[in-house]
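[09:14] KT: can someone run the structure on this one? pasting the chain below
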Amino acid sequence: MKNSAISRETILAIVIISLILIISTRFPAFIEINNLLAVFNDSAPLMILAIAQMVVILTRCIDLSVAAILALTGMICAMVNVAFPELPIVFIILISILTGLFLGAINGFFVWIVKIPPIVVTLGTMTIYRGLIFVISEGKWVNAHEMSEGFKAFPREHFFFMPMLSWVAIIVIILFYILLSRFPLGRSFYAIGGNPYAAVYAGLNVGKTQFLAFVLSGGLSGLVGYLWVSRYSVAYVDIAIGFELDVVAACVIGGISIMGGVGSLIGAVQGALFLGVIKNALPVINISPFWQMAISGSAIVIAVILNAKSTARKGRNILKKEK
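[09:31] RB: done, structure tokens below
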């Protein structure tokens, strides 16, 4: 499994580098370090959400509500900032994470306790969370002039040579890499996705582990909610609508198996970077942004074909099915 995962990551890395080099032949400035850092920064929200989605997919679930949690949390943070403009940003960030954790826990509760299929649960909560945005905001926007300067400044503040948004993404990548590779919870995600029946024999609580995956996904989505709203300085009902599709696409392109148990964090990040490069490159080389959908779709189809060729031994199965 390890060798195959490294192979997928290496191939995707080569594809991304080749794509950047090809684009630089049409637009040489694209390869400049400042522009590449800007591409990374633009891709940061997608990277964080791809990690959130990956954790859920590893357990044979899916979370279609990540963008809705992002939007609802972002609106809550914006409204809190308007009501209490002097509230320190650290508390706003804490509110965003805790709100996301709570919303993710709701998803996990219905999957674990009520035993509703994850796609049905998150499709329903996606609509509910979007509706709640309209209820609490009464359909009104929170615009830049209503937000405090500190609220808007955090993602843009530079530390060394990158904005804080990029550093937050890097911190999340490091923390979840450690979680997935060094902690029992991370290994249980793979074990349950590889073979949930064998995981039960190994003493793992499948439902509880899936619940925790949804909680983590919600927490990261909530964090991105604040970062998104503060960066673009606006909050409204339809914010990030449809973005959950980009998140799933990033995971699939990065080699995360929809069947669960297979995939790496680096692959998910590379999938997000791939989409980020396409999104940033097409306008500068005078190609219609609509081609982004075609290119992304083609990449997804190719990734699914490659994942379909993966053999059963690539999953972390503890017990094998009898013939």
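[09:33] KT: thanks! The two ends are 23 Å apart (CA to CA).
[09:34] RB: yep, looked fine to me
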